[in-house]
Specification:
Number of strands: 17
Radius of gyration: 17 Å
Number of helices: 1
Helix content: under 10%
Largest sheet: 17 strands, mixed
Shape: globular
Structural class: mainly beta
Length: 285
């Protein structure tokens, strides 16, 4: 623990002007991701010819909360499968770690509140990385993923890391293309997702999609029919379900506030140099 810890500060949601619609549906059986953020302008990366436009490379180590980059979901839920309401109060910054919380607290028509952030910009081919630590608990989902869909007037494409915290020894990787999934795979996380920060990354290229855990390749897709083809927003979310027992486990009140902690997130556009020494983009092309 660092000396002179900074006080934990809740992140206020941006003004309603950032919202482009009401809460949109997202896939049943996984994350709620509604896409109500302002559409980020696409800036093509000049150093590499790409068929998918992308916003520029970035690294965010959460020394502060970048409101130009992140939109905080607040005041809705993603459907009957979700037992919590997104709340800006569940997004907190402390000691260079951003935490998304899950806690018993009545808001709207739900008995629990939960946290989600998403980028305002969309990103294309490149290396996506996040350094995360989860909590434990059945019936909960802690996720790092990219998504675009009908809420943004685009086909539904998605690339996932999802920790179903009923079993923190594994993480589920998956991809959805034009709304079609069935690409999921459970992979091991040595030491568990809750005992230390772990590095999760995927490399998205025109002809392949590869997932990595702590620098180790854990899954590859090369079938063109199973590869996303639309620029996507980056999401982090932590939510629960009373109904999705077969996938997430039976939900039980954890009796305390739980959290998904994010220490760093980065996107390195295809062809760009790596941005920090530990980046997967330094060693994997």
């Amino acid at each position: 623990m660092k000396s002179n810890p900074k006080p934990t500060t809740a992140i206020d949601a941006p003004p309603l002007a950032y919202r482009t619609g009401q809460a949109a549906w997202r896939r049943l059986g996984s994350l709620g991701a509604l896409l109500l953020a302002a559409l980020g302008g696409f800036l093509a990366t000049p150093s590499y010819a790409q068929e998918i436009p992308t916003s520029p490379s970035f690294v965010d180590d959460f020394k502060s909360f970048d409101r130009a980059r992140w939109y905080v979901s607040d005041g809705w839920n993603n459907g009957s499968h979700q037992n919590c309401t997104w709340s800006k109060g569940m997004v907190e910054l402390s000691n260079n770690v951003l935490s998304l919380g899950f806690e018993k607290q009545t808001l709207k028509d739900r008995d629990y509140v939960c946290g989600e952030i998403q980028t305002k910009q969309r990103f294309g081919y490149g290396t996506y990385e996040a350094r995360l630590k989860t909590d434990t608990g059945s019936g909960l989902n802690a996720a790092f993923f990219t998504y675009i869909g009908p809420g943004d007037k685009q086909p539904w494409d998605e690339i996932d890391f999802e920790v179903l915290t009923k079993d923190t020894s594994k993480v589920q990787v998956n991809a959805y293309i034009a709304g079609k999934g069935k690409n999921e795979k459970l992979v091991d996380v040595p030491g568990g997702t809750e005992n230390a920060f772990n590095d999760y990354a995927f490399v998205w290229q025109k002809d392949s999609l590869r997932w990595y855990v702590n620098g180790q390749l854990v899954n590859t897709i090369t079938d063109p029919a199973k590869l996303p083809s639309h620029a996507q927003k980056i999401f982090f979310s932590f939510w629960g379900s009373d109904t999705m027992k077969g996938w997430m486990g039976a939900f039980a009140d954890p009796g305390r506030k739980l959290s998904l902690q994010i220490e760093r997130v980065a996107f390195t556009a295809l062809g760009e140099p790596c941005q920090f020494p530990e980046s997967l983009a330094c060693s994997v092309k």
